[in-house]
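tool=predict chain=A
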Amino acid sequence: SQYVWFYNNSQVYSGPQFTITKILRMHTGDYACLAQNTYLNTRSKKTISLTVYYSPDGSPSCSVEPALNHTALKLLCAWPGGFPSPSLDWTGDLVQAGKTQVDTEQQTNLQSSTAILLPSENLTPNNSLFRCVGSHPALKQSTECSTRTYIPPAEPVCFAYVTNTQQYLMLSCSWDGGAPKALVWWEGPGGQSKGGQENSNILVLRYGTARSGKPYTCYAKHPLLMEAKSCRLTL
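tool=predict ok
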């Protein structure tokens, strides 16, 4: 017989054995071997499919952000690219015991990203290093990334000041630092409040509207703590 090889329906080689010396992802596709016997005027064709696995570039990337109004941590791990998609898994006893919800990206074990939620009651400030391990069939060893969370140092700080035109009284509250950043909000008498913002918050009061003798309380919530911290001002 005489042999002819086809790649995606284009002839690429003549001979019984077709060798690819350096395999690349571009070689993925269908290969067909056509065998012809000119004496018997017969032919036979056999097709095989070649799939080339390749790993994503670099390593997984880890990040952490607040969730559920700063009552939980959301751990994010991503490693895009590659074929097939890599396997990603957050490791550690704390993660396995504390996770309450897995995002839709983790419906199967082979996805390019994964995210889990850890509620505050399952977290401890002293155990805040999280590791994500990524593995892929094209790699002999797994690779990983890590992210750390910590509570802002010191305590929330409250103070009051006035504008140069003495038209407004500013109540400032901040709790700087931390990873992720804390949520800060004001609650005062008569509905004089200000919704949550990260790191710092300023409640603006027009002159004549501030309440005397009643406290204005600033609350600061971090996902690593069950309870919110606070500081207050009484005018």
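The longest strand covers residues 29-37. Helices lie at 93-98.
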